[in-house]
Amino acid sequence: MTKTVVILGGSYAGLHVAHYLLKQKIQDVKVVLVSKNSHLYWNMASVRAVIPGVLKDEELFHPLSTALSRYPSSSYELIIGTADAADFATKTVTVSPLDGSGIRTLPYDELVLATGARSAVTAGGPEVPWKAAGSYEEAVTLIRETTSRVDAARHIVVGGAGATGVELAGELGFEYGRKKAKEIVLLAGGPEILGGDAIAGNARSQLTGLGVTVRTDATVESVRPAAAADGKTEVVLRNGEVITTDLYLPTTGMVPNSEYVDTKYLDDEQHVPVDQYCKVKGVDGVWALGDLVSKPRAGFLITQKQAVGVAKNIGAVLRGKEPAVVKGLPFDIFSCAVGRGGGAGRLGSVKIFSTMVWLAKGRTLGLQMIPSYVDGSVA
User: Fold this and answer.
1) Which tens digit of pLDDT belongs to each residue from 260-284?
2) By CB distance 3.0 to 4.6 Å, which of 7, 171, 237, 312 could disulfide with 241?
3) What is the per-residue pLDDT across 331-375, written as a single tens digit (0 to 9) for each?
4) How far apart are CA 147 and CA 53, in angstroms?
5) What is the largest CA-CA distance in the chain?
6) Residues 6+ apart with CB under 8 A from 168
């Protein structure tokens, strides 16, 4: 009897697991990949994509159908749609295909939750393209609209000084700040950027060198149109201060895409708790990874390690073997590109030279890895 592995989410984690299982050619196993976006979206480079004329759509988006076309058509199914509900008791998932063909109920033997997270939106603030929250068409449109707004603005406020905020401010500073073409302001809610991480001082000095104004203890409370109705935006801080700007770009965290999961399987932040095997706690045959889990934190390298472990564990289970503990990174790695010429990072407690961060991340923001996700060599 054919066993079915349903994978919800077609980004880094979900596509990685799909490639691994299909390459294993396990007898009588079918992989069903469900993704709202018909393309793999390399959102790691989204902060650079909103700078006019730097990246093209086809560099960021690659069809999932092309990535899977190398496998026998009988071994997989690609559904472009959304997950509406997962019933762990009956081992079924309800999905809505975007082609309007009607709601489907998919039975599964093993289920992978890899639906990631979407960008949090500040009250009154705009949508932003740092994560692919919608379809391929919606994602492309949002990038183009954001790029157009960046091009037209002369004063830009970036709200939130985590990794995405620092990288976005760095891209804007590299392109415009040094030339004094635009005024770039980065707002950190706490006393330091990057949550006060050991690399914060280095990143902050580089941002300043790129002409970015960094403000700390500046939490954004809300955003509203300027009273003058001149197209400007008022950014209201928690202390009551109002900053008037041409463009506000929030990078104030992420919201897990977990609405289809019963709340009893979610933690207080709506993440999905997992055990040491990346299995959803208290459930048989359900695995979760990536930003949906955010354990030990959200991060591309962490997601990669989890994808390797989950893929191997499902392969083992399908062969009647026991899963293994999913190994994380040997030490914490944290890095931020700061513009197209530098960066700040550390390996554990050891800081990395800016040039090394640029070579490893800032130079391409990982775009050179896309072919491995398309041809399956990543797995």
Assistant:
1) 999 999 999 999 999 999 999 999 9
2) 237
3) 999 999 999 999 999 999 999 999 999 999 999 999 999 999 999
4) 9
5) 68
6) 47, 50, 130, 158, 249, 251
pLDDT at 253: 86
* CA 361 to chain centroid: 16
Contact 19, 347 (CB under 8 A): no
DSSP string, 266-318: S-TTS---B-TTSBBTT-SSEEE-GGGT-SS---HHHHHHHHHHHHHHHHHHH
In whole angstroms, what is the distance from residue 32 CA to residue 26 CA?
14
pLDDT class for 255, splitting at 50, 70, 90?
very high
Q: Which pLDDT does position 39 carry in this prediction?
A: 98
Residues 353 and 128: their CA atoms lie apart, in Å, by: 31
Cβ neighbours for 329, distance < 8 A, ≥ 6 positions apart: 301, 302, 305
Q: Report the distance separating Cα 33 and Cα 28, nearest Å.
A: 17
pLDDT tens, residue by residue, 142-161: 999 999 999 999 999 999 99
List the end-to-end C-alpha distance of the chain, in Å, as a whole number: 26
Q: With a cut of 90, say whether residue 292 has pLDDT above it.
A: yes
Question: Encoding tokens for residue 103?
Answer: 């709601």
10: nearest Cα among 75, 90, 83: 83
* Angle, CA 256 vertex, CA 255 and CA 259 arms, to 5°: 110
Q: Residue 248 forms beta bridges with which residues?
A: 157
| HEC-encoded secondary structure of 94-142 | EEEECCCCCCEEEECCEEEECCCEEECCCCCCCCCCCCCCCCHHHHHHH
